[in-house]
What we know:
It is a single chain. The strands form 2 sheets. This protein has a two-stranded antiparallel sheet with strand order 1-2. Strands 3-4 form a two-stranded antiparallel ribbon. The model has no long low-confidence stretch (mean pLDDT 91). The N and C termini lie close together (10 Å). By secondary structure, the chain is α+β, with helices and mostly antiparallel strands. The chain is built from 5 helices and 4 strands. 34% of the residues lie in helices and 16% in strands. The chain has one domain (2-102). It binds iron/sulfur cluster (2 copies). One iron/sulfur cluster (SF4) binds at residues 29-35, 81, 92, 96-98.
Amino acid sequence: MAQSRFRMRAFADALDMYIRHNDQWEALCDMCGRCCFERELTDSGEVVINYAAPCEFLDLQTRSCTVYDCRFERCQACRKLSPATVFLANHLPDECAYVRAFLDT
Ligand code: SF4
Ligand code: SF4
């Protein structure tokens, strides 16, 4: 779904923030935790979150990561969010702050 929303201007804005103002980029995440559950992409491009299948490192009460500082070492499925991820990976839900900030919803 995100791929069909690709807009060059928005991608350039996201890339500029990611490179030149990375603290702002990181701060965009509102820690909703939705990307820490298994997800499936439907044929129509909708991201369906399986709330019964959280990452083993997600605290379900707070929706926070229990290994945040070393999450990429501890969890092989965990990926750093970059503009390329947001625009091309298609697996972030519509509620994700990055999707809301940069993609048409
Ligand atoms: S390791 Fe990654 S996917 Fe797992 S809870 Fe932490 S941030 Fe989420
Ligand atoms: S879905 Fe988006 S806003 Fe929510 S925790 Fe993941 S990256 Fe952050």
